[in-house]
Write a structure and sequence with these properties.
27% strand; single chain; 7-stranded mixed β-sheet; 7 helices; alpha/beta; globular
Amino acid sequence: MPDARDRDQGASEVSERIVVVGGGLGGVRSAERLREMGFDGQITILSAERHLPYHRPCLSKQIITGEWHPDDSLLSFSGDLDAEWRMNSPALHLDPKTQSVWVPGGEEIKYDGMIIATGVDARAMGGAPRHDPRVHVLRTLDDAVAIRKNIRQSQGLVAVIGGGFIGCELACSVRHMGRDVALIVRSPALLGGVVGDDIGKKITEAHVEHGVRLATGVGIKHWVRQPGGIGIHLSDGQVFFASCVVLAVGASPAVDWLRGSGLVIEDGVLCDATNHVVGAENIVACGDVARWPNLRFNGVVRRVEHWLNAVEGGRAAAENLLVGRSHAKPYTPVPRFWTEQYGMRVQGAGLPVLGTDTTDVNGLTGFIADGKLVGIVGLESPGKIITETPELFRQNTVDTNRQVWTQPAEETAAAAEVPEVLPTTQIPVPEPVAARASSVPPSVSSSMSPPLQRRRHSRSRPEMVRVGGGRARP
């Protein structure tokens, strides 16, 4: 990143500014890493939310059930962060040529470097009556509070649309509250088969045993809104009448603010192997919004929507922004993920979605592609996951000579304007400032998501908070 002093010789005191767009987990961890590496300029964090950073995994669990108060979900972060927080200030437009970003009120903010960490938005569902206050999505803390309020103030069935991690966790939480719940899923199996047939079957059986009304392999023909609830007519002839509906049908990268910027934003912000944004100077991206080629796993560009990727990706993006594109190192993690339902903990590592076959790996489900182990998933097997994860690092070595395809083969010609390959020739780099978690097998402490204990511990207070671009509040 070029020195701001070189661009303004006449200024008596010039400080570089890095703007972090996104006030969630990836944004705050990247900002922390900037300070750890010695960056002493300005850090401005633009957040679309009114809340300081919080843990999202608890939204479908402890926040919905009421076990946690919203304040219990807040993240701890470094007291040395010394950042300017701009709450209720989503980025509206980016001009990479002038290195400017605009926020509500028409304010233009100049930057010397930028970290894009805007994450994802809940995916819309065609035909669903989203304007009805009884129909919800779950992405933010406010969403979770609204769902909990709707459930507590109503009677009757709660319908959850979608059988992924969020949908299944929501159904589990609603049953924990003693309410009837229906889980309506387009695919024939829960969790979309990403955990393997055996574990998927056990999760499905657990939902049925706990009284979930399960409808799989069905679509929704139409919705009927009535004063007492919402009728959901399914393609197999079933009709559910719900007092509360939650749409959990996936997520879409939060990139609307980048339209017109010239960046490639189909299914996320296109990045190179070091998470530098393609087509822009001094911008990196991290977390759910970043689409980059992981040279450890075949070099095809893809997004990874896991908690730990926001942490590791945020730190790696900050490092690579500071050292510059020519000296940056590829970001090559082995992703890890987990879900807990009815007291059963499912954990995974790698990219099981790449698997074309499965095998037994010390009691875990191993996913195989091209003769290599590319993922493992286990049920109530944390020790085995920790033991076997280094094998994923060993079998999936980083290939910096690989051609990096920016489009999977099955994608259509709609994105034909995107360059087909990106160069991956690496310039020798100095030793990193600190060891990166993604470059070595994970330790026990770093292998999974945050512990589930209540969080009423002390938290660092932001040095400055601005709400909606208004006056600073200490």
